From TrEMBL:
The lineage of its organism: Bacteria, Bacillati, Actinomycetota, Actinomycetes, Micromonosporales. This is Adenine phosphoribosyltransferase. It comes from Micromonospora jinlongensis. Its EC number is 2.4.2.7. GO terms for biological process: purine ribonucleoside salvage. Residues 54-159 form the Phosphoribosyltransferase domain.
Amino acid sequence: MPAELTERLAALFRWIDPGPGTSHLVSDISGWWRDPTVLAELGPALVAPYRAARPTVVLAPAVTGLLLGPLAATALGVGFVAAHKPGDGRLPAGPLTWAQSPPDYRGRQVDLAVRDRHLGPDDRVLVVDDWVRTGAQVRALYDICATRGAEVLGTAVVAVDCPPEVAADLRITGLIDAADLHA
Ligand SMILES: O=P(O)(O)OC[C@H]1O[C@H](OP(=O)(O)OP(=O)(O)O)[C@H](O)[C@@H]1O
Ligand SMILES: Nc1ncnc2[nH]cnc12
């Protein structure tokens, strides 16, 4: 992990108290996008461990992945594919491949969908996301890749918040350990 970027990620992160009636703090990563240095360096840092494996495409889930995925794809010079969450009421048009995640960090079983025409057997896929806790959503994306016959190279996230055995199983690399996000 690049030390200076990791320090900036920690400095720009906030835990927020959403107010009365809530029992836990929520993460606020918006400072990462507001900082021009972090915004410029995130894509190249995320993809660095995977360059040698020559990804053909970056795949990332809504919503935050729609921001990070294109940063990573641009750094690699490849295209980007969105994994939609039609639970938000917007079903993408055309043929789709679906997977449902195991219960994620909020106990949700999330339905994810990818347009068939954007992912296929010739693809070597790098999955990108902001945060991983249980790995549930990453697992669903791997299921979609398997259904499409695409090869998964691994997953690059900003904050790693999962057990080491999950990171090893899913081939997850990260830029900062969530335990180091204090502010
Ligand atoms: O490891 P897991 O337990 O699967 O949790 C991690 C996922 O959950 C969060 O997304 P969320 O669905 O909250 O969407 P967001 O990007 O809209 O915040 C996060 O961005 C990851 O995608
Ligand atoms: N964005 C996020 N995704 C998963 N787990 C989290 N815990 C705190 N913020 C999170």
